């Protein structure tokens, strides 16, 4: 993992001291809320429905056990004993006191973490593949590039006041596990026929009220020009992105309105200019960073053997582990989606347990996934049973990865000041309706995503089944959509029709799965069947009179 | 009726204007009639409350009930963590929100 140098640490420490002073002045009444609000937001501190909420950045979703343990300790010391892992691979605390915020940031700085740029119209935390550096299908480890991007984007003065917030995802595998094409910029590290590495730039994707899939803008940018190309992409956006209407201010609107070809032309022109300025970090810096991401000391003789005689363990292994590039090792996915639970929430004890497991069994590394789960990226197969037992004791051995109960859900109206409807109760009811694991496995991969408002933090546009909560004259109502996807086959869901109340949408989901089971052919996922047979059979089933309510 | 709510600057707690000061209990909220703007201006000047705003509410047999679900959730706490709400011993309290 990357470790701060003296510049990183001094920047973060200075920011803590600066914010401590700002908080003291606010509490003393020396500055008004209008003056203070942008300052606290610059440090990830929001005011939500019940209290202040602190969003902590987890750079490209990667954590050490020391960092993870501190996140658990913060939950106990300053919050109410839990944290919420988000779809941007970050963690949020929901019950923060303003007077404690500087101390929390100081604690975070002590383990090389912060909450900088987790709010505001700036470049947010870069997200990445949760299996980076471990996946068997990986072409290039994206983490050094993501770290370079982190350093470039942190406190970048030119991009501190963009028309709107800006989200970048970076992957290095053919399989997209980071919803890359639904970001402002998605960068895929690829190799050409000569084996050279290049950056494929997708620009202008996003969810929210105007979901768009990013077109390819740069086919094969040399890695040592990646930052210059990013500068060019951002400069064109910063220059021409709309500032008069926040709903039309994201880069996706600019790319859409002027067209991908014209946007590309302008980027190329700017790129050529930037290359003359020498803005690109020296190659030696990328090499220095790569040194922090060397392959851990794997046991070359690690056994591939696995005793699967315990059926519950066998189920979990089948569902929640992923192929590792190193023989004798595997990637463990820890589901934060217990039946009836709150997606993405983990107690302080659970967080610390995961930290302990990472230290003992996964070369001190964890990952946060955009699906609100946790990953132990480098686990010896010989250790799997022990790990599973410890997870099971802590309520963390749910064998439901990528199944219908592995639901992405935003905090919704239970916590979020922007939300129009609650998301979590719907997720809970669906997971309870489909609690039987055998039934879930029979349904196979089915990605269900719920947002409590059109901002789409719950990624509903990209759900095989998506649910959007809306406010209908003060009453919660839920729109259903089918056919979204976030991987290589990225697509946007289509709304089924009139919305449902809370129970009605759960019934409608169940009826949709019945249609799928009746209509699927060999090997088809829910998404595949929907794409083959279209909306009509599903609409016919879900709008049968008894389920319509709205 | 119109009532005033906000958040305690220091703790972030949801609070309600009682006519004399601020309470965490929505049932302590009082109707402010046409005085809302003056009260908010006066309280904002004290710099101890933030995000002050006026909302619609009704008086029911159960007490003061904010008109909008968002404000009812603010008044109670998260419906999915009743243990963290203002009525942790009343599992049915979440129904009040709906």
Structural class of chain B: alpha+beta
Radius of gyration of chain A: 23 Å
Largest sheet of chain B: 5 strands, antiparallel
| Helix content class of chain A | 25-40%
Give the averaged pLDDT of chain B, no decimals.
96
Please outline the major beta sheet of chain A. 5 strands, antiparallel
Shape of chain A: globular
Task: Show the helix and strand layout.
The complex is a heterodimer of chains A (550) and B (98).
Chain A (H helix, E strand, L loop, with lengths): L5 H22 L5 H9 L3 E3 L4 E5 L5 E3 H13 L4 E4 L5 E6 L4 H9 L17 E2 L14 H11 L14 E4 L13 E7 L5 E7 L12 E6 L4 H15 L10 H8 L1 H16 L7 H8 L20 H10 E3 L5 E6 L10 E3 H14 L3 E4 L5 E7 L3 H10 L14 E2 L14 H10 L3 H7 L4 E4 L13 E8 L2 E8 L11 E2 L6 H18 L6 H8 L2 H7 L8
Parallel strand pairs in A: 6-7, 7-8, 16-17, 17-18
Antiparallel strand pairs in A: 1-2, 2-5, 3-14, 4-5, 4-13, 8-9, 9-10, 11-12, 12-15, 14-15, 18-19, 19-20
Helix pairs in contact in A: 1-2, 1-4, 3-11, 5-9, 6-8, 7-8, 13-15, 15-16, 15-17
Chain B lengths: L1 E7 L5 E4 L4 E2 L12 H11 L2 E12 L2 E4 L2 H8 L17 H4 L1
Antiparallel strand pairs in B: 1-2, 1-4, 2-3, 4-5
How would you portray this structure in words?
The complex is a heterodimer of chains A (550) and B (98). Chain A is of the alpha+beta class and 550 residues long. Chain A folds into 4 domains: 6-55 and 77-109, no CATH class; 127-291, Sulfite Reductase Hemoprotein, domain 1; 311-393, Alpha-Beta Plaits; 408-547, Sulfite Reductase Hemoprotein, domain 1. Chain A is 35% helix and 17% strand. Chain A has helices spanning 6-27, 33-41, 65-77, 101-109, 143-153, 226-240, 251-258, 260-275, 283-290, 311-320, 348-361, 384-393, 424-433, 437-443, 502-519, 526-533, 536-542, and strands at residues 45-47, 52-56, 62-64, 82-85, 91-96, 127-128, 168-171, 185-191, 197-203, 216-221, 321-323, 329-334, 345-347, 365-368, 374-380, 408-409, 448-451, 465-472, 475-482, 494-495. Chain A has a 5-stranded antiparallel sheet. In chain A, helix 1 runs antiparallel to helix 4, helix 7 (251-258) crosses helix 8 (260-275) and helix 15 packs across helix 17. Chain A is globular, with a radius of gyration of 23 Å. Chain A starts with 5 loop residues before the first helix and ends in an 8-residue tail after the last helix. The relative contact order of chain A is 0.09. The mean pLDDT of chain A is 97. With 98 residues, chain B is an alpha+beta fold. Chain B has one domain. Helices cover 23% and strands 30% of the residues of chain B. In chain B, strands 3-2-1-4-5 form a 5-stranded antiparallel sheet, covered by helices on one side. In chain B, a hairpin with a 2-residue loop joins strand 4 (49-60) and strand 5. The longest helix of chain B has 11 residues, at 36-46. Chain B is globular. The two termini of chain B are 19 Å apart.
